[in-house]
Amino acid sequence: MLAPVILAASRSDKMRRFISAAPGTKQVVDRFIAGETVDQVVPVIEDAAAKGLEVTLDVVGEDITTPEQAAAARDAYLELVERLKELDLGTRAEMSVKLSMFGQSLDGGHELALANVRPVVEAAAAIGTTVTLDAEDHTTLDSMFAIHEELRKDFPQTGCVIQAYLFRTEDDARRLAAAGSRVRIVKGAYKEPASVAYQDKAEIDKAYVRILRILMDGDGYPMIGSHDPRLIAIAQELGRRAGRKLDEYEFQMLYGIRSEEHLRLAAEGHRMRVYTAYGTDWYGYFMRRLAEKPANLLFFGRSVLTKG
Question: What is d(CA 138, CA 193) in angstroms, rounded to the nearest whole number?
Fold first, then answer.
């Protein structure tokens, strides 16, 4: 399978330099990354709002090596909150954050990440929106969930992400499916060992449905992160069986992928949120998008060949 190779390449500085310099890279990156600055992403937010869509905004970047870089990541999100406030878009846009950007992997990283993310969550709440903590590789999750629990004491609307391919996730889902919680379920996009994660796509899909049933039958607010038509249909059916109204859960899909489906779901009355990434440090995010779907890799390969 190509996905493990691509995910390994996402950590390679040599591959980063090679892909960044490839002539066709920009064309493909622009498909998944909404821009490099807040100013460039604002029209994307406004366009989504005009179409009845909501967004969650991710300032891309994960390879933080100093506390100063972590503080800069915090400030980038605070700048985003300020722009959302100015444009009165707080009710249409939330934010997604990776705690690695806030210094989680540094010495004293748990406390540092909590200290950096708290002002972002506080600023988001002040303009009527919220923050979701993205899941990263399995070694970071205990820290992420602990920070999530701590933030929810003051900001109960703070969301988190769980990944269907991890063996632990069914237990996490049962714990999180409580009143007031916001939980996004995704398949998972990191290279994980067989000791902690399903490796077979069919097994991952089965786990996704089991976890989705837990969330739908619970008292929280499920957020279905998937582009898979079969899983979307299953989610709709599970929501119906659980007696949920259409505004009691939502779908989330990536910017640049299945855009017509975004509009179709919104037209049916579903809450549909577009995960919209922007920023200059796009490499890790971009490589995971390639790994998730072979068609993305083929698109990239054709672009490189035709632009070379």
Answer: 10
DSSP state at residue 246: G
Average pLDDT score over residue span 201-207: 97
Distance CA 56, CA 94 (A): 5
User: CA-to-CA distance for 173 and 220, rounded, in angstroms?
Assistant: 10
Element (H, E) at 131: strand 131-133
- Beta strand pairing status for 221-225 and 93-97? unpaired
193 three-class SS: coil
Name, in order, each residue with C-beta under 8 angstroms of 53's C-beta and a sequence gap of 6 or more: 262, 263, 266, 272, 273, 274
Rounded mean pLDDT, 45-70: 92
Dihedral pair phi/psi, residue 271, rounded to 5°: -75, 125
Residues paired with 203 in a beta bridge? none
- For residues 20 and 286, the answer to whether their CB atoms sit within 8 Å is no
- Distance between CA atoms of 260 and 294, rounded to whole angstroms? 20
Q: Which of 146, 153, 155 is nearest to 125 (CA)?
A: 155
Cβ proximity of 158 and 133 under 8 Å: yes
The answer to whether the CB of 155 falls within 8 A of the CB of 125 is yes
pLDDT for 279: 86
Segment 263-288 mean pLDDT = 86
Answer for the pair 212, 219: CB distance below 8 angstroms, yes or no. no
Structure confidence by residue, pLDDT tens digits, 131-178: 999 999 999 999 999 999 999 999 999 999 999 999 999 999 999 999
Mean pLDDT of 188-198: 94
pLDDT of residue 299: 47
**35: region left, alpha or beta (phi > 0 left; psi from -120 to 50 alpha):** left
Residue type, 116: N
Residues serving a catalytic function are 134, 184
Distance CA 121, CA 132 (A): 9
pLDDT higher than 50, residue 35: yes
